[in-house]
Specification:
The complex is a heterotrimer of chains A (665), B (115) and C (217). Chain A has 665 residues and is mostly helical. Chain A folds into three domains: 2-496, Up-down Bundle (Cytochrome C Oxidase, Chain A), CATH 1.20.210.10; 510-592, no CATH class; 619-656. Chain A contains 19 helices and two strands. Chain C has one domain: Four Helix Bundle (Hemerythrin (Met), subunit A) (Up-down Bundle). Chain C has five helices and no strands. Classes of the chains: A mainly alpha (665), B mainly alpha (115), C mainly alpha (217).
Chain lengths: 665, 115, 217
Amino acid sequence: MATAAVSPGYAHAGEKSASGLWSWLTTVDHKRIGALYMYTALSWFAIGGLEALIMRWQLKGPNGHVVSAEVFNQLFTMHGTTMIFLVVMPLSAAFFNFLIPLQIGARDVAFPRLNAFSYWVYLFGSLFMNSSWLFGMAPNGGWFGYAPLTTMPYSPNLNIDFWMLGLQILGVSSLAAAFNFITTIVNMRAPGMNLMRMPMFTWMAFVTQFLLILAFPVITIALVFLQFDRFFGTNFYTMTAGADPLLWQHLFWIFGHPEVYILILPAFGLVSEVLPAFSRKPIFGYPVMVYSGILIAFLGFGVWAHHMFAVGMGPIADSVFSVTTMLIAIPTGVKIFNWIFTMWGGNLRFTVAMKFAISLVALFVIGGISGVMHASPPADLQQTDTYFIVAHFHYVLVAGSLMGLWGGVYFYYPKITGRLLSERWGNWHFWLTFIGVNLTFMPMHWSGLYGMPRRVYTYDAGQGWDIFNAMSTWGAVIQAIGVIVGFWNIWSSRKNGEIAGNDPWGGGTLEWSIPSPPPDYNFDVIPKVTSRYPLWDVKSPELTADVPHSKHGDERNDVVVGGKHVAAFHDHMSAGTPEGGVNPHSKQAPTKVPLKTAEELGIPMPYPTIKPLWVAFFMVLMFASLLLIHKDKTQLAITGVIVFAVCMTSFLYGWLTSPLEPEHH
Amino acid sequence: MTDEFTHTNADIDVHAMGEVHEHPTWREYKWVALILTLITVGEVWAYYLPSFVASAAFVPVLLIMSAAKFAIVVLFYMHLKYDHKLFKALFTGPLMIAMATLISLLFLFGKFVKR
Amino acid sequence: MATAVASHAHPPTSTGLDHRKIAIWAFIGSECMLFASLISTYLIYKGRSVVGPFPHEACDPPRCATHLNAILNIPVTSISTFVLLMSSLAMVLALAAVENRGKPGYEGILGSSKLWLLVTAILGTTFLGFQAFEFTSFVHEGLTIRTNLFGSSFFTLTGFHGAHVTAGVLWLLTLLAIDIKRGLQPKDALLVDISALYWHFVDVVWIAIFTLVYLIR
C-alpha cells in the first residue's frame, strides 16, 4: 500500500509502532487509521476529479463527443457518488479519527478495533463500487438513484447493483464510526473538559455523528427496498402494482438533506480551529457557534422536501418546507458572522491554511445565498435540474467543504507527519484552486439561468451556453493543476518539509501540547483542563483573559499540559528544547529525544489485530455475492452469502472474545 | 457495539461510582408484566368489538394503549426511569425525530385526508 | 478528579458510565429511524395494493380472481405477542440474577441467570416459530413478498423485525455459553444489561408493529 510509505516517524515509540505493511494492516491506533483515511480519500479525490475533467472536456464546446451518452451517465453518477461518499465524508472521518482523541485529551477512541473495522469497510466498499468500471458497468442512475428509474425494467444491468450494494456497505462504515465517536466524545474527555470547553471541531464532529446515526438508517431501508425489488421482485417501486413514485424520493432526501450537513459541518469545525489560531483570538461567540451547529443539524431533518418542489406536493407542503429551509439560513449566517468577528481586530497571519479557511467563509456565502434563492418554490421551478443547481451545490461542497478540508490538511499535516507542508507550493495550490473553483462554477449560474439542463452529455451551439461552458472547462483544468501541486506538496513535504515541533502555529487546544507526530499513547499524563484554550492558558494567558475559567483562579497554576506542570512547561518552552520548541526553520530532524514508550510508562495499549480487516473483507464479499443473482446464478449467490456470512461471524466472535489490551490493575 | 465483549475494565466500575440507581426487582417486575398483559388483552378485545371498531375512538384508543405499553417497557424493563439522563436523551431525541418524520411522511402521502 | 490522573491506568470515564452502554443506546436511537422508515412505508402503502390478498378484508370476484380470505391471523399473533412480552420479563429476571448474585433472596430460582437466559432465548425462538408459521400459511393463502404492495411491505417490515429477534437469540445464547463456562458475576452485569436493552427494544418495536399493522384496520 502506497500509504505505508508515508509512515510518520513513530520509530521511537516502542515495538507496536514498527512500520511496515503488517503494522498498518493490524493497526488500531486512531492516528494511523486517520492517516489511512486521509490518503485513501485523497486517492479517490484524484479519480473523482478525473471523472469531472472528462465530463468538462466533453462539454467544452457544443456537440462534443469525447465519450458516449452512456459513459457520460456513468461518469456523472460516479463523480457525485465518489466525491460525496469516498472523498468528503472519509476526509472528514480522517480528521474525526486523528483529532477527536487529541482534542479531548484521550489516548484513543472508545472502541479502537471497531475504528479499524470502519476504515477497512470503507476501503473495500470503495474498491467494490469502483470495480464496476472494469466491467464497463459503472453506476449510471445519478448519485441519488431515483427509483423507479433504477428498478429492473429501466436499469436491467449490473450498474445499479454495484451502486446500491456499494452504498449499503459504506453505510455500515459510517454508522460504526459514528457510534464510536459519540461514545468517545461523551465519555473520554480529559478532566475539566466539560461540553462547553470542547474545541469547536470536536463539537461539530459530535453533531455530525448524530446526523449520521439518524440519516443513514433511512437510506439503508430505501436501498433495501431497491435491492428486494431488483433481486426478489418485490413491488416497492413498481408503479403498475400501485407503488408511489415519490417514496424513493422522500426516503432518499430524508437521508440526503442531513447528508448535506454531514458534508459541511466538519469543514465548519476545521475552519473554527484555523481562524482563531491565525487571528490569535478565541473564537467569537463560542456558545452561539455551538448552538447554531446543533440548530442546523436539527432543522436539517425538517427540510428534505425542498429537493422535490418540482414534483407537485401541493401548496401546504411547499410552503412548510420553503419556510424551514429559509430558517436554516439563520444559524448558518450566524456562523459566518462569528467567523468574521473572530478575525476582526485579530493579529492575522495569512498562512495557506488561513487562506483556505477564509475562502470557505467567503465562497460558502455565495452557495448559501443561491440556496436561499431556490428555497422559494416559484424560483426553484425555474432553476431545478439546471446548471444553476450544479453551481449552487458545487459552491457549498467544493468552495465550502473542500476548501475547509484543505485548510484542515495544511493546518494538521504537521501534527500528523511531524513536518510542515511547503508554504510556497501551498500558495500555488491555494491560488490555482481559488481561481479554478470560481472560474468553473461561477459561469454555471449563467448557463443554468439560460436554461442548460443538468446531466446532458452534449448540447447544440447557438443557445448562449458556449462561452460559459468553455469558462467552466478551463476553470476545471486550472483546478486540476492546483490539485496536482497540492498532491506534490503532500508527497514531497513528508521527507523535505520543515520540522514542525509541538506547536508550529501557536494553537490553543490540547493537540498542540504534545509532540508531532504524537506518541502512540498521545498523552503521557492526561491533561487537566480549566478553559477552552488550555494551551493558551499556559503559553499566552493574555489571549484567554475573557474566556470563562474554572471558578478557583489558582487552578490555572495547576494545569498539566503535555505531561508537564505549567512552570516546568514554561521553562521548556523558553529553553527551546526539542520537545517544546524546535528551531522552526531547521530541515534537519532534531536530535531524537527518546520519548518513553507506552510500556515504560505503564500505559496499557490495545493489541494490534487483523480481525477487523477480515470481518470487513468477508462482509464486502457477502454483499458482492448478491451480484450473481442477476447472472442467473442464484444458487451460487446464496451459497456465497452463507459462506461469507459464516466466515465473517467467526472472525467477529474471534474479535469479540479476544482481549483488547493486556490485563492491568 | 460490543467491541470489548469480554473485556471488563477494572477502572470503570459503574456501580462503584454510584451513577446507576438500584434496578427494580421481581416484586415490581411481576406487576409490570401483569399490566402489559392486561393492556394486550384489552387491545385484542377491542379488535373484536365491531361497534367499537367502527367508531371514531378505535384508532386513538389503540394508539394510546400501544404507547402506554411502549412507555412501560422502556421505563421499567429498560430501566430508563432509573438510569442516567444521558441515556434518556440518547433515546428520546432520536425517537422524537423518528416519530416526526413518520407523521410528516403520512401527511405528505395524504394519509390524513378523508377520501 | 482533583489531581492529574496516574498514568498507568485508564482514566475514569467523563460520565462515569461504561462505553458500551452509551454505544448501545446510540445504536437503539439509530434503530428508531430504521424502523420508522419501515413502518412509514407500510402505512403509506396500506390500502394501495391493486390485487389481493388484503390484510383485514376478504376479496371476492370480480375484484379478485378467486375468493381470498383476510390474511392476518389475529389470534395467533396475539399469542406470539404475549410470548415476546413474557420474554422481556425473563430477560429482566436474568439481569437481576446476575446483578444480585449471592444476595439474600436470590439463592433459588430467582438467582439462576442460566435459567432465565435460557427461558428468554426459548421464548424468542418460539416467537420466531410463530412467525415462520405465519409466513408459510400466508404463502399458502396466496400472499408472497411479490404478490402486492401489502405483501412486499409486510414481509419486509416483519422480516426485519424477525432478523433482529434472531440476532438477539444468538446474543443470548452466547451469554448463556459464557455463563455456563465461567459463571456471570455482578461485575459482568453490563454484558447482560446491554443485551437486555437490545432485547427490550426489539420487543418495543413489536408493540408498535402489533398495533399499527395487525390491529388498526
